[in-house]
Fold this sequence. Notes:
Radius of gyration of chain A: 36 Å
Radius of gyration of chain B: 35 Å
Strand content of chain A: 5-15%
Largest interface: A-B, 40 and 41 residues
Oligomer: heterodimer
Helix content of chain B: 25-40%
Distance between the termini of chain B: 146 Å
Shape of chain B: elongated
Strand content of chain B: 15-25%
Amino acid sequence: MKKLLAVCAGVGLVFVFVWERVDMVRLGYHIERLKHEKVLLERERDELRVKVATLSAPDRIAKVATDKFGMSLPQPGQVVVVQSGPAEWPGASRQASEVRLAKVEMPSGRP
Amino acid sequence: MAGSPSRTRRFVLLLVLLCGFGVVLFRLVSLQVLQAAELTVKADRQHQKTVALEGARGTIVDRHGKVLAMNMDVPSVFGVPTALESPAQTARTLSPVLHVRASELEKKLRQDRSFVWLARKLDPEQGHQLEQMPMEGIGTVLEGRRFYPKGPLLAHVLGFAGLDGAGLEGLERRYESHLHGEKRVAVLQRDALGRIVFPKDEAAQNPASGHSLTLTIDEVIQYIAEKELEEAMNKTRAKAGTVIVLDPQTGALLALAISPRFDPNSVAALTPGRWRNRALTDAYEPGSTMKAIVAAAALEEQVMKPGTMVFGENGRMTIANTVIHDHEKLGWVTFAQVIQKSSNIGAAKTGMALGEQRLYRYLRAFGFGQRTEIDLPGEAVGLLRDPKGWGRRSLASISMGQEVGVTPMQMVSAISVLANGGMLMKPYVVSEVRDAQGQLLKQIEPEMKRRVISPETARAVTSILEGVVTDGTGTKAAIPGFRVAGKTGTAQKIDPRTGAYSSTQFVGSFVGFVPADNPRLAMIVVIDEPQGESFGGLVAAPVFRRVGEQVLNYLGVSSNEPVKLAMATGHR
């Protein structure tokens, strides 16, 4: 009986060892698959970063702004800095503030 | 007496078994002992894969974190000619995707080799197309490719990296030790199908990416500088041009534009002259812009005061048998007017009042004849000879900006001394170095090299240079609403054929700063060999104005002419 138990224990140990090795290989494959997925996602992220950087290039933005939306750079005098005096306004902030305004001068013939 | 048959059989069986075990034992010893070394190598070769891993090259961003250069893994395509059934058919299929002629591909695929590159570092779009059409005998591997998403923007500063990923020019070269990724060899276990099973050691962990650089450059200011320079180049049909914008208080480089431009994404067909950073490598005779520096030296040494009267010799003076002319016949004028009207004779007299040693000492103190030590490669020292080597005319010539060679970077650094109250700052372009996880490794702080002149002298010269823009030769640099200080320069180039000053080739320049009362920008504009008009006041000063007004607006710098807004308070 003792011998049988010893044999069973031995066989069991062998099974545990083999199972552990097989599981290691299975996990190895799983890790590799996840790594591959990670690489693909990183590639996609990098592609998107390059695309964002390319699309946000100042010359492209300027071209779209002027060609597509009819925008133009403010001419000298169109941007004015307004310094508001706190003393004149009761209850206003004690700190002087600056407000940047663009003087909108619509070309004639446009609403 | 013969033994019993069963005993004989047992003996034979034992013998056979012994022989069998003997053979097995012999084979075991042969495999495990005699051939152990050779077979271990063979086995390792079959179930281990050694791969060279390299971390991605670091990213370069501007001061607001906008990406200027970054790495991306892209596919490179290879073929296995020995495994192909129809090289011609494969070549025809690949040709439109790889943008390579089919005949060229077929030639490669017909080679008697087991591996041949068909195309390296493709665009991501091409990679996606290839993934849709797997072919026998054709494979891809991922390689890091450097992308410059803004194209030619800042190309001369960024430089570029080669096919092997090493930095070859500009910041890519200067900061190679920081930017390149970690290189590591890893041993991986693979199965019978060649799949990776499990890393054998820690080395298989991804190697660290290179460090990223944060620049002092602002991509919007850079864009404005490049756009306006290109416009000036088209207008003047000049050979080359440079615009540098510095923060005069710190020496931080805000923009550096060079024309002609180039795209660092495709440099293979270009000559080195195209990507040379002329702002650092090309020394030129500064001409009258040097008078601003000479004036500062004269005021600091108190050999002149802004109101000192100087006789203009009616536009003609002989020094060492050479006649010096002024473009305007001047009589008695103040020293301030000498600078504002850019009088050569007045400048020569100022230089003579200073003397050789003092003039040389101040020019060195302002940084001429030595590198600015900006963190970019290839900087020239310029030309400033020791007074021992000066001729009889040299003192006058150098005071007018001749017989001396400066780089645009040296000149804008020198003018920054006047803008910041007298200190020579070391210009710099990289402000931070961070590791792949974003941890700050190194922060570069502004560095003062030395005090050159007193704040009082700097203010006095600034006042004189404001006059250059309001009443002198630099009126086209004036920016409405802002006080601008600067100096024009028009220098004849030396004709390489005759060795004498050319009457047709000039360098027109303008160097200055704005707002003069609280300088935010120091800027130089150099236009090399403009066609037609060549005066610095006509070709370079307008570029200064256009760049200056847009950048000040972008930075939100208040003009000197605030408008009081009438507002209803809402109080009853």
